[in-house]
Amino acid sequence: MKSTGLALLLLLCANAFAQENNVSQKTQDSVAKNQPKELKEVTVFGNKRQYLKVESDKSTISVKNNPLLNSGSSLDAVKKIPGVLTSPTGSLTLNAKNVAIYIDGMPSSLSGTDLQNYLLSLPATAIEKVELIYNPGAAFDASSSGSIINIITSSRKMKGVNASFNINYNFNKYQKPSPQILLNGKKNRISWQTMIGYNYIDGENVNKNDQTFNTFNPDEILNQRNKAVSTNRNFYWRTGANYKLSEKSNLLLNYNLNRANDRVVGETSTQGTGIDFTNESLAKNKNNNHEISLQYKTKLDTVGRTLDITGFSNFFDKNPITKSQGQNNGTSSYFNGDVDFKLTNHYIKYDFAIPYKKINFSINTGGKFNMIKVHNKGIYNLNTTANSITDFNYDENNLAFYVETRKKIKKFNFTLGVRFEDYKVDRQAVQDGVRTDVDFTNTNFFPNASVMYEFNQNMNLTASYSKKIQQADYNVLDPNNFANFDQYNTSSGNPFLDPTFFDNYELKLTAFQYVQLGGNYTVAKDVNKFIFDAKPNELVSNQTFRQFDELNTLSFYASFPVPLDYFLKGKTEFEKRMNDIDTMNYLFLNINYIDFTTKGYDFQFKTKPIMSYTATAQIMLPWKIKNSMMYNYTPPGTWEIYNLTKTIHQFDISFNRDFMNKNLRIGLHCFDVFNTNEINAKVSSTNLQTQFYQKQDSRTFRISLTYNFGNLKLEKENTEIQTEKVGQGGGILK
Q1: What is the 3 state secondary structure string of 79-101?
Q2: Less packed terminus of the chain by CB within 10 Å, N or C?
Q3: Residue 603 has what DSSP assignment?
Q4: pLDDT score of 633 more than 90
Q5: Going by C-beta distance under 8 Å and a sequence separation of 6 or more, which residues neighbour residue 242?
Q6: How far, in Å, CA of 624 to CA of 659, rounded?
């Protein structure tokens, strides 16, 4: 504790020194801070680059120039960000709170595995930065549940025509390249950007489930093993243009395309009393995702009033086909599945900001209308000549309005807002002629409030509250969810799930743009969680989602840097490097303590809080080689309803060198160096207890090459789509 305190004291002193040498920048920050505006963009010019900026309502992490984050997929990058934790089922949380995913300020229409696959297909080299919004207010959709991760893709606007070529070559048991080219430019009133790339990735995933069926006397035990070899081929094209209508108005058009062709070859086995079952399967899936958005934004006058109007449409379809052939004690079995899935999402929204600078007061208001339609038809055949047909339809209409006010009184900043949401959700499932209709209508108000006390220009304390809702999305409702299916395993959605309501409380101290200490408490009612269950006296495990009465989460977290240069180079050299993080040696630590309390669930094991520790380091080596390292350590504990029985830890290392006046960058990377990232957990449910093990081929070696050519002088003109006021519903990663 003493050494940490000394490190923090040194950091504070260093920041004070840096500020004395940057009076003009300090003045600009002060003026910006006193203006009651929405969340501000983080744009840094010149040598003063920031990889991390901590503010009272969000943190911004640079991905573009961070070698540990920018050489894999978007999902890989997000998982490595301090404070982002992955649950045993693969869902993402931010300081233990649920997460909604936004991309360029637009909420993702996808959820579950569809959203994960989308993030896997989007390379991290396409990301400029990531915003972590901890407790979003009324301007954000109520279904943001707890927090938001906003992935902002590259949006540089430069004079002339410019390009960047990037290629990653991955190899472990498989060797596949992933090339990408980025073109952008600016001429007169038009600025544009096009990103084209192709991913070709192979991987393995090994699962083991030891399941005890306790309605038998004695208990029956099945030992199941599954090995899946996946091939993911994905083409993406992301393009955008900005037309500057006038000095105060811009019109922005974005179009994104993703086309995927995936394949999974599976080998499974089930062993039990009198059971010796093996199964070989082949699953193919083609999907297409189209996104188009049009935004008009304008400054209405010189006092700062602004109006943003955005229209957005998303079209997504997929066609997974599965065929398998099994043998059970000499008896053959087979399974065929053919699914046709289509999703459309349309919305329109507006945001209006009215500042009153003389009295340090502002009003923000807006509204949106959103329509989502899902149709999924599955045709299955299991050891019979007759087909089983499941038809699922999901329709959601959402009308919303919000108003949020901000007022500064001396050292206090107050925020008070309320959002009105009118939901109408219709679900219809027809299984072999049997129809089930579940309709849900909810009209509700979702308030938020926060108060921030500024101790000084560099330190503040914030307390906040928000009420949110999480709709059960199509991924957990759809009975066609059949990721695992044979004679002893089924998987399906649950169309009867209700939405989850959240009360989020947070207290946080931030200092000097790098330090944060805080805690949050969340009460979630009618929460939906993934679980294994079984019917009485049946040796069939079903993977599905079940509703629990209440889940309370208490979390404490701390993030702070340790200035290694002070110890390695001395005070004088350390002060010189403060303004250029590219040349600094530093260690950044993040610590999380999480305690879950679940009501309406009978644990078959002793629960205990969970801890997570993450350390990120940058070391400058001879010959201008930059070494980056990251280590995560999570010891056993209870995560929601899952009991982690073994430690999860991973060590990543990266070496990078710039050439040709920084136009060429070559990197060597190794992820999960010791091949130790695996999940071992227990979960108990109705008639069934499951011990599951999951191991991906996470140890990966990678060579990356990036070459930039053209005019690399960044224009200071802001021509990108704003992401401060993006109050729509988002995809929840479950």
Answers
A1: HCCCCEEECCCCCEEECCEEEEE
A2: N
A3: -
A4: yes
A5: 157, 190, 191, 192, 250, 251, 252, 719, 720
A6: 10
Structure tokens at 377: 């038809």
| Residues 95, 144 contacting (CB under 8 angstroms) | no
Name all contacts of 668-672 with Cβ < 8 Å and 24+ positions apart: 668/701, 668/702, 668/703, 669/67, 669/68, 669/71, 669/701, 669/702, 669/703, 669/704, 670/699, 670/700, 670/701, 670/702, 671/72, 671/76, 671/698, 671/699, 671/700, 671/702, 672/698, 672/699, 672/700
- Rounded to whole angstroms, the Cα distance separating 130 from 81 reads 9
Q: Report yes or no: 680 and 693 within 8 Å, Cβ to Cβ.
A: yes
Structure tokens at 166: 């990037």
Range in 236-240, 336-340, 414-418, 715-719 with the lowest mean pLDDT: 715-719
**What is the spatial distance between Cα 261 and Cα 243, in angstroms, rounded to a whole number?**
35
> How far apart (Å, rounded) are the C-alpha atoms in residues 530 and 518?
29
Q: Mind giving me the DSSP string for 308-375?
A: EEEEEEEEEEEEEEEEEEEEETTEEEEEEEEEEEEEEEEEEEEEEEEEEGGGTEEEEEEEEEEEEEEE
pLDDT at residue 188, rounded to an integer? 84
As a dihedral over the C-alpha atoms of residue 565, residue 568, residue 574, residue 578, rounded to 10 degrees, the angle is -20
Q: What whole-number distance in Å separates Cα of residue 512 and Cα of residue 44?
A: 16
| Distance separating alpha carbons of residues 713 and 665, to the nearest angstrom | 18
Q: What CATH class does 2-732 carry?
A: mainly beta
Give the CA-trace dihedral at 563, 569, 570, 572, to 10 degrees. -100
Cα gap 56→45, rounded to integer Å: 22
Confidence of residue 289 (pLDDT cuts 50, 70, 90): very high
Q: How far apart are CA 621 and CA 618, in angstroms?
A: 10
Closest CA to 391 of 439, 435, 335: 435
- pTM of the entire predicted model: 0.85
Name the nearest CA neighbour of 57 among 136, 118, 4: 136
Alpha-carbon distances of 706 from 44, 196, 658, 666, rounded to whole Å? 21, 14, 10, 7
Contact (Cβ atoms closer than 8 angstroms) between residue 352 and residue 368: no
Closest-CA residue to 376 (of 285, 479, 283): 479
Residue 159 · residue 186 · CB < 8 Å: yes
Evaluate if residue 718 carries a pLDDT over 60.
Answer: no
3-state secondary structure of 556: strand
Task: Say if residues 287 and 318 touch (Cβ distance below 8 Å).
Answer: yes
Q: What is the dihedral of CA 34, 40, 44, 50, to 10 degrees?
A: 90
How many Cβ atoms sit within 10 Å of the Cβ of residue 564?
18
Does residue 370 contact residue 345 with C-beta atoms inside 8 Å? yes
Angle at the Cα of 22 from the Cα atoms of 20 and 26, rounded to 5 degrees: 90
pLDDT tops 80 at residue 728:
no
CB atoms within 10 A of CB 163: 14
Sign for the CA dihedral angle at 148, 649, 71, 696 comes to negative
The answer to whether the CB of 649 falls within 8 A of the CB of 671 is no
Q: How many other C-beta atoms can be found within 10 angstroms of the C-beta atom of residue 622?
A: 5
Q: How many CA atoms lie within 13 A of 103 on its CB side?
A: 27
